[in-house]
C-alpha cells in the first residue's frame, strides 16, 4: 500500500555564496567503459610517490615486483581517498537553516524530502546541471591552508547536495561559485560544525561518500494531463539518479529524461492509471518500484516506497 506524504511544493531558491574544490569521481551520468587496450595502463599518481618511503620505491624493482606494486597502488589510492579534494565553503540560510528549503534540485521542503538541514548548494562545477542532486559529501575544515585558523579542528560534517550556488559575474571570475571552482555553500547549522561563524569562508577538504537515508525512495508528482514531472527523492547509496522509467497500468516502461534538478519528465498521458517506477542510481544499482501510486493519484502528491539503494 503506497503512503501519501504531502502535497506542498516549495518555491525555487538559489544560494548566494560561492567557493572552490576538485570534483569527485562518482557522478550520476553514464560513463563509457575504458578502451580495451588501456585497461592495464595504470599510472601511480605523482603525489603518492612523494609520500612513500624510499625503501618502498626501491623495492618496486626488486623482490616480487608484481605483488608489491599491487600493494603500493592499493595503499596509495587509499591515501588519496582519505586526503580528499581541496575546496572552500561558505554558509547561507540562517541559524535554523530554513532559508535553504526549496532549491535548484526541486526537493521543496527538505525535511519532508528526507534531507533535513544538513545540506549544501554546490557550485556549478560540482552541480553538473543537476546530476549531482542528492549526493553526499563529507567536509572537513583544512587547518593547513590560509584561513585555517577559523577551523574547528578534528571535526567533519556530511551534507547532502540540494541546491545550486550560481556564479556571481559581478565578481572576478564569477566569485567562489564561478566556473572551475568547486565550492560548498552550506546550511549554517552544517557549516558551524566545522568553522567559526565570524570567518564567513573557510578552506575545506571534501570527499563524496555513500548516503545513508531513512525510509525508502520518494516520488513527488507534478505536471498536466499529457506531461508528468516526477521529483525523485531520498536515495541512499550514491544519492543521485542516473536514469528513470515510468509505467502506467496500461503501458509498458517509458524512458524518462531529466528536466531540471532531480525532476524527471515523461511526455505521456498517465492520468487515471496506477504508476510504477524504475530507477538506476548513479552508482549503477537498478530497482523497480511497483504500484507506487494508485489510479486516483493527484498532481502535487508525494508517494513513499519501502525500497532504497545501497550504491
UniProtKB/TrEMBL annotation:
Its main location: secreted. Residues 226-305 form the Expansin-like CBD domain. One of its GO terms (biological process) is cell wall organization. Pfam families: DPBB_1 (PF03330), Expansin_C (PF01357). Residues 102-216 form the Expansin-like EG45 domain. It is found in: Secreted, Cell wall; Membrane. InterPro entries: Expan_Lol_pI, Expansin, Expansin/allergen_DPBB_dom, Expansin_CBD, Expansin_CBD_sf, RlpA-like_DPBB, RlpA-like_sf. Keywords: Cell wall, Cell wall biogenesis/degradation, Glycoprotein, Membrane, Secreted, Signal. The keyword Secreted applies. This is Expansin. It comes from Urochloa decumbens.
